[in-house]
Amino acid sequence: MEPILKVTDLSKSFSRAGKNEFFAVDHVSFEVMPGEILGIVGESGSGKSTIAKLITRQIDATTGTIEIDGQDITKLTGRQLIPVYAKVQMVFQTPAGSFDPRRTLGDGICESLRNKGISKVEREAKARGLLEQCGLSSEFLERYPHQVSGGQCQRAAIARALMCDPRILIFDEATSALDVTVQKQIIELLQQLQREKKLAYLFICHNLALVQQFCDKVLVLYDGKIVEYGLPDDVILYPQSEYARRLVDAIF
Amino acid sequence: MAVLLDYQHVEISFNGNAVVHDVSFQLHPGEILGLVGESGSGKSTLVKAAMGLLGSSGMVTRGDIWFEGKNLPDLSDNEMRHICGEKIGMIFQDCGASLSPIRTIGEQIMESMAAHRKVDVAAAKATAMELFDKLHFKDGERVWNSYPFELSGGMNQRAGIAIAMLMNPVILMADEPTSALDVAVQRQVVEEMLNVRKVFGTAIIIVTHDIGVVSAMADSILVLQEGHVMEYGKAKDVLENPQNAYTKKLLSAVPRLRRERL
Ligand SMILES: Nc1ncnc2c1ncn2[C@@H]1O[C@H](COP(=O)(O)OP(=O)(O)OP(=O)(O)O)[C@@H](O)[C@H]1O
Ligand SMILES: Nc1ncnc2c1ncn2[C@@H]1O[C@H](COP(=O)(O)OP(=O)(O)OP(=O)(O)O)[C@@H](O)[C@H]1O
Ligand SMILES: [Mg+2]
Ligand SMILES: [Mg+2]
Q: What is the ipTM of this complex?
């Protein structure tokens, strides 16, 4: 089987006027197989969101390559990325900012299918179904982003990401604004999609208990570098790196 | 003890639809109240109501919110300006949106401090740097000079915490202040909030989904579901001996770290 996502020697450096450039992501390599769930944990500022932005091509890599389903997408631009976004979708750390404030959540959620030329009736039916699976009534299609709570917006963003049946979903702290009962419902939905559709996930999350429950593998990032990569139980129960040990010890 | 902030039978509506119903609670000086509950149950709405931040379609349709002898929903925008930030500080759930995208963190800190009193730039920066350090920023100078887009989610969240805390408010309203932080940093932030309470007697309302954070901090807990109070009492009682079915469900759904192999 081919990995659905393969990242090789990926780096991103930022330079600031008068300062040395620094590597937010420092030569990382990993892969995700279809149906696999890879957790990424790491200190605040360690480069997790930057990795997500690199993979979804919102920013350009400094070194390395990104392959989606066997295709090198590192240098693709503009229209070339459209078929890629049918395979990779992302749920952002701050979901409110990812919806257009002047358009309803329904417009945002249905956009990817509208671009594919799917009828209004069909796409709205699908949106309603997904919203319901995320614990939101179809009434939310009509709402504007500022008219919903933090967790409701996050769930709308999850529904939007699922609309085009991607092969891999990147979650950047996408369940952190949810109370535990709703979080459980979302995790169950994700597990069902993983089983039925072999959907893979890159799951950026600081909740180690959730990572332990949900992920097949976990990668620990520190200062842009991978300091551990393995089975959740190995990493969490027997941390080798100083940072991972500190994380496990800090849990309330 | 004197009551600092008093919510009395508060109902809040958007476009005439009530989303918060008959909520009452009291906050005392130095008390930490944990506000927990379902996504969409009205937690952010409740804290925003005290700050006059419900937007054009939202309003307190019943009840009172008393603070220093004044009913907050009755105050004019001008009177509110003297209270917000200076007396009641707010850490927003969506920290990114509450920061200005076009000014550096340092500029924003100086601005919010200068809005209420005369400040000595060097002294203010030194105080900020000290707090940055306690909030576990590795390179405070860089954060001070950065725009929000140059910082990570958790760094922006901590910048928002710093801005609210530097004003030294009597009450700190913290809406999911640690949701974007890894556990090591989260612990540091919790400790700093406890420290502020100890040193300055700050009262805190903390909205959080993290039951671990609530149990580490809160003196009292209010559980909300669909805008109704499900349970309100001493933290220890609510956590150890919940009476309400929803509270029980909430506590049992908390994912716990397994410290042994299956
Ligand atoms: N556009 C940018 N310009 C300069 N520096 C940046 C930029 N974007 C990110 N950085 C820096 O890169 C580092 C990694 O940021 P990133 O957002 O990837 O962290 P993160 O692991 O997602 O953290 P968090 O858990 O707090 O969200 C941080 O030090 C951040 O300040
Ligand atoms: N401007 C608005 N117009 C209409 N309804 C609104 C508006 N703002 C919030 N609501 C609704 O009010 C209810 C309470 O929202 P609130 O943001 O207080 O929830 P919350 O408890 O903070 O949830 P979360 O944990 O998801 O952040 C929600 O059902 C939300 O959809
Ligand atoms: Mg991030
Ligand atoms: Mg909220």
A: 0.91
